[in-house]
Amino acid sequence: MKVVELREYRIKPGKTKEWLDWMREEIVPYQISKGMNILDTYLRTDENGRDYFVWLREFESESSRQTIYQQTYNDWWIKEVRPRVFSLIDEDSVSVKLIKPLDLF
């Protein structure tokens, strides 16, 4: 059964353009190359003017999600990418919810 992640991150003030450019140019292509299916991306602004990056990633199953995670979040990611991620988004804002698609249509 397919699994979809609904992910949301609060972008640090003044970092929205840098975050979106980096996601578009490097992060999304890298994750796609590792087998992730990116369904869509969104920018949400709350009532206080804070920007949030929201995206949906789909996996064929929970086991495929775990396999792709192992391939994606390797030593390079931990040492090189993760520090930059948290220079652009608030670490305590990361929200990941697993949702299961319904076959209603």
Structure description:
- This is NIPSNAP domain-containing protein.
- InterPro entries: Dimeric_a/b-barrel.
- There is one protein chain.
- A hairpin with a 5-residue loop joins β2 (37-45) and β3.
- The chain has one domain (3-99): Alpha-Beta Plaits (2-Layer Sandwich).
- It has a four-stranded antiparallel β-sheet.
- With 105 residues, it is of the alpha+beta class.
- The chain has three helices and four strands, in the order βαββααβ.
- It has helices spanning 16-33, 62-72, 75-88; strands spanning 3-10, 37-45, 51-59, 95-99.
Element layout with pairings:
Blueprint lengths: L2 E8 L5 H18 L3 E9 L5 E9 L2 H11 L2 H14 L6 E5 L6
Antiparallel strand pairs: 1-3, 1-4, 2-3
Q: How helix-rich are the residues, as a percent range?
A: 40-55%
Calculate the terminal CA-CA distance, rounded to whole Å. Answer: 17 Å
| Mean residue pLDDT | 96
Radius of gyration: 14 Å
- Side by side, the strands of the main sheet go 2-3-1-4
* CATH fold topology: Alpha-Beta Plaits
Tell me the total number of β-strands.
4
Number of helices: 3
CATH architecture: 2-Layer Sandwich
Order of helices and strands: EHEEHHE
Shape: globular
Low-confidence region ranges: none
- How would you classify the helix and strand content by structural class? alpha+beta
Q: Describe the main β-sheet briefly.
A: 4 strands, antiparallel
β-strand percent reads: 25-35%
Overall number of domains: 1
CATH classification, class level:
Alpha Beta
